[in-house]
Fold this protein.
Amino acid sequence: MTSRTFVMAKPDAVERGLVGEIVSRLERKGLTLVAAELRSVSQELAQEHYAEHADKPFYDELVAFLTRSPVFAMVVEGPGDDTWELCRILIGKTKVTDAQPGSIRGDFATTTNENLVHGSDGTESAAREIKLWFGDRA
Ligand code: RTP
Ligand code: MG
């Protein structure tokens, strides 16, 4: 029972030339890209993507950050039903001081706001985000 999740190299990752590193870590783990796209993000898409955070104090900053420059959006597949969770482990914890070395954030991020990668946080959000970003193209 394979499963898919949504992973995105955020603007800071593209700006810093870390897309290859991020894709490499996913692939080295044994996960596969089934769709990927470098794209600019509209205000509307950024707002919808982070809709769960609409009432948080950092929401406007988050939307501004995501629309700053292109992102590399991916649909990632793994052999089990836990692909979203495996990706979150590779990505690392949200808070910069919690992100452990060995994870993408732990190895490369110095702030919580610019933390390089997004990964869906569950089966339902993975389905929602794959549809939002790729529609029928994944
Ligand atoms: P993401 O959605 O981007 O994969 O990150 P996440 O699940 O690890 O964290 P989440 O709680 O969904 O927060 C989304 C993004 O908002 C920023 N954030 N800032 N200042 C803060 O307390 C704070 N908390 C979260 C981070 O950039 C986080 O990635
Ligand atoms: Mg999140």
In short: The chain has one domain: 3-35+71-137. The mean pLDDT is 98. The two ends are 17 Å apart (CA to CA). The CA atoms of residues 97 and 106 lie 8 Å apart.
